[in-house]
Amino acid sequence: MEVVRCSKCSKRATISLRHPKLNLCAEHFKEYFENRLTKTIKRYKMIKKGESILVAISGGKDSIALLHALCNALGDKVEIKAIHINLGIKQYSSKCLRISRDFLKKLDIEHYIIDLKREYGFTVDEAVSKLQFKRAPCSICGLIKRRVLNDYALKLKVDKLATGHTLDDEATFILTNYASGNLDLLLRSGPAIPTKYGILISRIKPLYEISELETTLYCMINNLSYVEEECPYSKEAPTISLKQMINQIENIRLGFKISLIRTYNRMIKPAISSFYAQLEEEPKFCRDCGYPTNADYCAFCRLKRKIIRKS
Ligand code: SF4
Ligand code: ZN
Ligand code: ZN
User: Fold this and answer.
1) Could you tell me the distance, in angstroms and rounded to a whole number, from the CA of residue 255 to the centre of ligand 2?
2) What is the CB-side half-sphere exposure of residue 42 using CA atoms within 13 A?
3) Hey, which end of the chain has fewer CB within 10 Å, N or C?
4) Which atom of ligand 1 lies at the shortest distance from residue 231's CA?
5) Nearest C-alpha neighbor of 298 from the set 197, 169, 176
């Protein structure tokens, strides 16, 4: 049988990528992944030298690969901190907490473990059961995570908040919101969102052009443990089947996902943005917490009130 050699050296290749077409040994795959990460950061002007970055760690493969690669590639140029939120989702969150804690202990960086119940008074499970049928679990959880991460980014006075959203997540997000005409959400997405009103801290997605297959391979090659089990609420998320369909298109048309997100950023997002600029209203701020909102109270404060009312 013919031995496939690494495209960069003469060693036996352990990984074959279809797009770009490359055969790589373990060492060169690591190098390739970390180079892709720094190129994505540069392409979308995500980070400046000397900035402080708070990385959100869920315990899943994407955020674990992100933090590991970020420390390797930029650890000497920026200040990296990490945060994990214990969301209180059945046994799933205990696994996420254990894996994240073990991983963070091994890294020589400042890190924080936030217990949602202790700090905010409720868990995601409690929020979901109290608001049953009103809002999908992932939508409730997403709102809570965004808020907690921003609160801590403000407290810790970091410049940027980095999340492990991948190419697959972003392609799915664009198509979902495009199909439902949710222009507002589309506008709030993207690889790098700047700080707004001095309260919404800049968000960056360094894995914006990196696929889930690549983050899985990176974790395997580096012997990084991650939570393999799916969140129990993910079965209810309609995006899972869409993600699979997008990957089927990618198999037939290599480069489809990258082309989708780049075209969106280069052409579609600016068009939506200029349309919205004409409609721009004076920002309002929540009467309780001061976060920007288009009502008297922000979505997070409204959610908290509903949970308390039903307790
Ligand atoms: Fe939260 Fe949904 Fe992710 Fe579970 S799958 S952690 S509920 S966003
Ligand atoms: Zn090699
Ligand atoms: Zn509020």
Assistant:
1) 24
2) 8
3) N
4) 4
5) 197
> What number does CATH give the domain 27-230+237-280?
3.40.50.620
CB-based burial label for 214 (10 Å; 0-12, 13-18, 19+): buried
Tokens of 226: 């991650």
Q: How far is the CA of 104 from the centre of ligand 3 (A)?
A: 31
Collapsed DSSP state (helix, strand, coil) of residue 16:
strand
Closest ligand 1 atom to residue 234 Cα is 5
Listed by start position, the domains of the chain span: 27-230+237-280
pLDDT in tens, the chain (311 residues): 788 999 999 999 999 999 889 999 999 999 999 999 999 999 999 999 999 999 999 999 999 999 999 999 999 999 999 999 999 998 999 999 999 999 999 998 999 999 999 999 999 999 999 887 678 899 999 999 999 999 999 999 999 999 999 999 999 999 999 888 888 888 888 999 999 999 999 999 999 999 999 999 999 999 999 999 999 998 877 788 889 999 999 999 999 999 999 999 999 999 888 887 776 678 899 999 999 998 999 999 999 999 888 77
